[in-house]
Amino acid sequence: MTHTDNPCFETSVNLLNDPQNQRVWSIIISLFGDMAQQPKDQISGGALTRVITPLGIKPEAIRVALHRLRKDGWIESVRSGRASVHYLTEFGRTQCAAVTPRIYAREPGAPQSWHLLIAAETCGQAALDEALLLPGYIAVNRTTALGFGPKPGKTQDLLALDADNLTLPNWFKTQLFPADLSNSCAALLKAVNAIPDPAPDLNSAQVATLRTLIVHRWRRVVLRHPDLPANFHPAGWVGEACQRRVFSLLDQLPRPVLADLCETPEI
Amino acid sequence: MTHTDNPCFETSVNLLNDPQNQRVWSIIISLFGDMAQQPKDQISGGALTRVITPLGIKPEAIRVALHRLRKDGWIESVRSGRASVHYLTEFGRTQCAAVTPRIYAREPGAPQSWHLLIAAETCGQAALDEALLLPGYIAVNRTTALGFGPKPGKTQDLLALDADNLTLPNWFKTQLFPADLSNSCAALLKAVNAIPDPAPDLNSAQVATLRTLIVHRWRRVVLRHPDLPANFHPAGWVGEACQRRVFSLLDQLPRPVLADLCETPEI
To answer: What is the dihedral of CA B174, B180, B185, B187, to 10 degrees?
Structure first.
């Protein structure tokens, strides 16, 4: 196993890995989303194993996760000679594409315009719940949604207005950025700050392992909160520092060419 | 009783009077608020009787109401020779002065700027309830207050923002102007439109009776809703037409000089 004979690599994996909280299918999606999101992209079973087993995940667990991902319609697998190759279904690609802009955004949301939709206790709740299913809406409380941009033309049974000059109380900030999210984010910042700058002699699989781990951890922080400007952040929120370090590391770990990754190494 | 020998006067009183819904103490306050709100103003017992008995109210009921108003601190009464005179206490004058601008406003509220204060279900409720006790705040629902003018500097635990370009749903309009208020207002409009223009030969007491009735009915409509521009009114709201006719009638019934009113007529 020559490709793990690298103490910097092992240190980085240990710092980034979170075995308590490891869903193998979710890690596989992070990997496909990062490296094989285009229609013709595919990853061989061998490459998957090389990228994911360094996290302490057994090949059997990978097989189980792939089975689940096929059953749920995310992934398809085909035989190619004696090997297997795996790729995202159209459904899987659509799901990944929906969150890719958010995961890979390098800047926190700029200050922008806002509107509010407000229901009565006894009227307009259905219209409000419908609005809250749309992207660009944040629940303030049971009867109020804050929306990005100016108020839409049709607002059904809702009191609607353009909002300006917002003063944000602490309860709203910690509702958007709850303590467990802040803790996850602080833990990730600690990890990404502690790992050494990537060595230039990492092979393609090692680069893919580190990218997958970083993207996976960041995805689980960034997708749990809406993209909001700094005045929405609670005191002590380190998301911006975390984001800077995540992208500084990813820039030092350029995406391997899939063909290189999937070539069976001579071991 | 020469002063009721006027068929136009009697018709007007019958149209404006609402014996089902007649609180004598409240009518007396309408009279004092309209005609004797200044510190040295006073109304004799005889004048009170002459103004109020045409409404079908017995002198005994006037005595009971005055007793209650003294007990509650609104009115004081003193002897003056064989007669009695009555006047508003400082408390009574303050209470009247607080609502006089609203009752006597001749124009509906102009469009103006607005702000919102929003509480969470579990946070900020006390601050919101406090704001709703202030003039210039309207409850939207249990967690939201709409305030006149720009957002205040300090808003405690509340999400605060300047609101613009409001779209108002029907539930909010009928919450502000409920059906029974709309009905009262429509009934008053019908009455004020039906009464003949005041005859020039009315005596001071008759003028005072009609003014008191008109102000009393209008007060009970106008103080039950906030002063809001037309886009807040539900379909069919006739408050503006009512207001125009009320002030057109009051302009034709100029306030009698108190000394004339209180002079005992030779009967």
So the answer is: 140
Q: Same domain for B209 and B242? A: yes
Residue B169 forms part of a structural domain: no
In chain A, the residue whose alpha carbon lies closest to the alpha carbon of B115 is A163
The chain B residue lying nearest A163, using CA atoms, is: B163
Interface of chain B against chain A, CB under 8 Å?
A: 114, 116, 118-124, 140-144, 150-151, 155-172, 175
* ipTM of predicted complex: 0.77
- Helix, strand, or coil (residue A132): helix
Whether residue A141 and residue B143 make contact (CB cut-off 8 A), yes or no, is yes
CA nearest neighbour of B37 among B89, B84, B72, B83: B89
Closest-CA distance, A33 to chain B, in angstroms, reads 37
Query: Per the domain annotation, does A53 fall within a domain?
Result: yes
Identify the closest residue of chain B to A158 by CA–CA distance: B169
Instruction: Tell me the chain A residues in contact with residue B178 when contact means C-beta distances shorter than 8 Å.
Output: none
If asked whether residues A22 and A90 sit together in one domain, one would say yes
The span from the CA of A139 to the CA of B53, in Å, is: 59
CATH code of A54's domain: 1.10.10.10
Q: pLDDT averaged over consecutive 10-residue blocks of chain B (267 residues)?
A: 69 88 91 96 95 95 96 95 93 96 86 92 93 92 95 93 96 95 95 91 95 96 91 94 96 92 67
Write out chain B residues lying below 8 Å of A160, CB-based.
166-167
pLDDT per residue rounded down to tens, chain A (267 residues): 444 468 889 999 999 998 777 799 999 999 999 999 999 999 999 999 999 999 999 999 999 999 999 999 999 999 988 889 999 999 999 999 999 999 999 887 776 899 999 999 999 999 999 999 988 899 999 999 999 999 999 988 999 999 999 999 999 999 999 999 999 999 999 999 999 988 888 999 999 999 999 999 999 999 999 889 889 999 999 999 999 999 999 999 999 999 888 876 544
The answer to the question of residue B170 being in a domain is no
B172–A142: do the CB atoms touch at under 8 Å? no
Q: Please name the helix (run of DSSP H) or strand (run of DSSP E) that holds residue B83, with its range, or none.
A: strand B83-88
Cβ–Cβ below 8 Å for B155 and A168? no
Q: Look-up: residue for tokens 């989303």? A: A33
Domain shared by A141 and A195, yes or no: no
What size, in residues, is chain B?
A: 267
